[in-house]
Amino acid sequence: MSHVVSWGVLSTAKIGVEKVIPAMQRASRCRIDAIASRDAARAAPIAARLGIPKVYGSYEELLADPSIEAIYNPLPNHLHVPWTIKALEAGKHVLCEKPIALTAPEAEALIAARERSGRYVAEAFMVRYHPQWLRVRELVRQGRIGDVRAIQCFFSYTLLDPQNVRNQADIGGGGLYDIGCYAIATARFVFGADPVRVVGLIDRDPNFGTDRLTSGLAEFSGGRHLAFTCSTQLVPYQRVQIGGTRGRIEIEIPFNAPPDRPCRIFIDDGSDLGGSGIVTETLAICDQYTLQGDAFVRVALGEEKAEFPIEDAVTNMRVIDAFFQSARKDQWQNV
What we know:
Elements: E1 5-10, H1 14-25, E2 30-36, H2 40-50, E3 54-56, H3 59-63, E4 70-73, H4 80-89, E5 93-96, H5 104-117, E6 121-123, H6 131-142, E7 148-158, H7 175-191, E8 197-204, E9 211-220, E10 224-231, E11 233-244, E12 248-251, E13 263-268, E14 278-283, H8 288-300, H9 310-329, E15 333-334
Parallel strand pairs: 1-2, 1-4, 2-3, 4-5, 5-6, 7-10
Antiparallel strand pairs: 7-11, 8-9, 8-15, 9-10, 11-12, 12-13, 13-14
């Protein structure tokens, strides 16, 4: 019988409580055994509701529990690296929310921590485990739409609460960190390469100081481009277009793929602008967070090789750093 890994969760962050924990509880290789908060009274009712047996009133107590094998870290962005390192040093494998850090040099510290601890650490880009993205990459590799040259991505939502961590600039708030990172990660996933230079435009909220509207261009080798816009203050919407010399792929709900209904991708041969050449592929219902949890366990236990080691997360941060620097300097920036 396959080993089931015992997990502990750092904090009662909304993404963990509402999405990731329930999904991982449905995974075949994951068991959520503990949750920690700096206020045990806050965590207790959440643990009771989710059926989590152990509650800790500090993160340190959770990391000291010898029965916990892996940690899920959904803390605010500025706490990702410090607490991930502490968890690794406590002998735990760690799945950390994106973005992995606030800068690439900060993220690089995780490589050394992994080497010291001998434990697995990964960034939680759940989209890379969803069948729709695996299918898109397969179609691209098969040449279904010819030579893929362009990817366009739009991802937005509206969030005006000043208390929300996404609106706090000093701890890593803003659109590029929160959702622009998906455009970068998925373009690298589809192209199978990293960008060589980028240029970015940023409009900052005058009160929050965060980037509320960011647009970017990234140049990949071979004349391939990513163009994206992300915003924390626009109508909620998301879509990805992948353009090739003989066709186009559109991903209907690319990032917040629903766990309760099928996802669709559209493959268009371009025979006319009215869409008569579109073929729709419908992917079976699944939860990408569940798939991510089981995939993490297989690598942590040595059953599979990591396709996305922590070095991949450092590279994604280098691209994010370059976009911020480009906007500051008002010029193209090499990655």
